[in-house]
Each structure stands twice: as structure tokens, then as C-alpha cells.
Fold this protein.
Amino acid sequence: MRRVRVVVGGEVQGVGYRYTMRMIAREAGVSGWVRNRRDGTVEAEFEGSPERVDQVLAWMAEGPPGARVGSATVTDAAPAGDAGFEVRPPA
């Protein structure tokens, strides 16, 4: 089990990034959450098998059509045992 925290910058708000990510994460079978941050970035924390986490990370580097990802910072986190994947309110 691997859990990561990711902060993605660029043109990532107002382009459906969070809702598309929720769909991608659910399809990949990872659990966690995603939210907009007030500084214009998108933050996510999720866990699953290393292969499935890598699959979602690869998608995050590109994002949905209309997004332009300029940066992505990935840090490892302790597994939390989340169930499901949700879009959270901005932080």
C-alpha cells in the first residue's frame, strides 16, 4: 500500500480537474481525496497499490483537456485506510 500527497500547479482550476480526477481515481481503485487550494493549485492525497498510485500520478501530470500542468510535487504519506474517493471543499 502506498499513499501520496500531491500538489499540482499551473492552469488546473476551472477546467474540471478535480471531478475528472475523482473519476480516474475511482476507475484505478485508489482511495482518498482532491481539493482546490486558495493559491490556485490542486491538492490530492490518495492510496492504493503502487501500480495504481503510479497510474493516477501519470494522469495528474497531464490533467484533463483544458488544463496545463506546470508543476507537480509528490510526497509520500502514511496510509490512512480511506474508503472511496471524494472531492473536498477548498482549503
Notes: The domain at 2-80 is CATH 3.30.70.100 (Alpha-Beta Plaits). Strands lie at 2-11, 31-36, 42-48, 68-77, 85-87. The chain has two helices and five strands.
